[in-house]
Amino acid sequence: MSNFKVESIDFNLYYGESQALKNINFQAEENTITAFIGPSGCGKSTLLRSFNRMNDLIPGVRTEGQTLVNGINVYDKSVHVDILRKQVGMVFQKPNPFPKSIFENVAYGLRVDGVRDKHLIEEKVVNSIKQAALWDEVKDKLKKSANALSGGQQQRLCIARALAIEPSVILMDEPASALDPISTSKIEELIYELKQHYTIIIVTHNMQQAARVSDRTAFFYLGELVECDETKAIFTHPKSLQTQNYITGKFG
User: Fold this and answer.
1) Domain ranges of the chain
2) Paired sense of beta strands 61-69 and 6-15, if any
């Protein structure tokens, strides 16, 4: 059993004939935040989506090597994708609340899971909204439509929805790129607080954001993981010239 919460071992991913990820070896420890950085199309989101097999939805995808979550290879035939996605929550770039009430957005995963106990659902919904630092803003509006919330509030609601089913890993694909600076700052504070309970992997184009929130940063280029190290080391003493050129703005 691996000590790492999330791990890729000699992992390759192909879209048809095109190789999107090349021999990736990556580890994320429990209760850490790892940021994935690199130019567009370099494989960051593809690797992120391999941890909960979101890439399965794309025709012609095939993989080689292993991706482990909690020590289990997620591509093993015995793995049920539904169960995997309960362990590995996902927050997308644009907030995507359901056209339901604030309460029902967060309760959705529990209901799909077959939870019927009203008190338990209420307790988990309230706790998740509190954990997502949204409670004070919505506690009197739980029956109102989630679409009435601001963009930043909607994104925190989507985080609450991911937390309600009690994952151990949370994936975030540019969770603040569609938000204004104040909302972005709230999301960053929230991410930092959540790492006490979760292992978080975040894809970001914003290098300042990576520097602010993450413990470790991984730099990707052309489908390869060029280097992964403590965030401070990546931004002050990168080992690779490619990393240095990217973070100093010479390309990207």
Assistant:
1) 6-247
2) antiparallel
Give 75-88 as a DSSP string: TSTT--HHHHHHHE
Q: Residues 169-191, buried b or exposed e (16+ Cβ, 10 A)?
A: bbbbbbbbebbeeebbebbbebb
Q: In this structure, how many other beta carbons lie within 10 angstroms of the beta carbon of residue 78?
A: 6
210 and 225 in contact (C-beta within 8 Å)? no
Q: Is 190 within 8 Å of 137 (Cβ atoms)?
A: no
Sheet holding 72-73, edge to edge: 18-28, 6-15, 61-69, 72-73
CA–CA separation, 19 and 48 (whole Å): 16
pLDDT digit string, tens, across residues 202-248: 999 999 999 999 999 999 999 999 999 999 999 999 999 999 999 99
pTM of the model: 0.95
Per the listing, tokens 């991706």 go with 67
Q: How far apart are CA 133 and CA 190, in angstroms?
A: 7
Tell me if 75 sits within 8 A of 51, measured CB to CB. no
Distance CA 167, CA 219 (A): 26
Q: What is the pLDDT averaged over residues 107-135?
A: 96
Distance CA 42, CA 84 (A): 25
Cβ 8 vs Cβ 66: under 8 Å: yes
CATH node for 6-247: 3.40.50.300
Give residue-wise pLDDT tens across range 108-121: 999 999 999 999 99
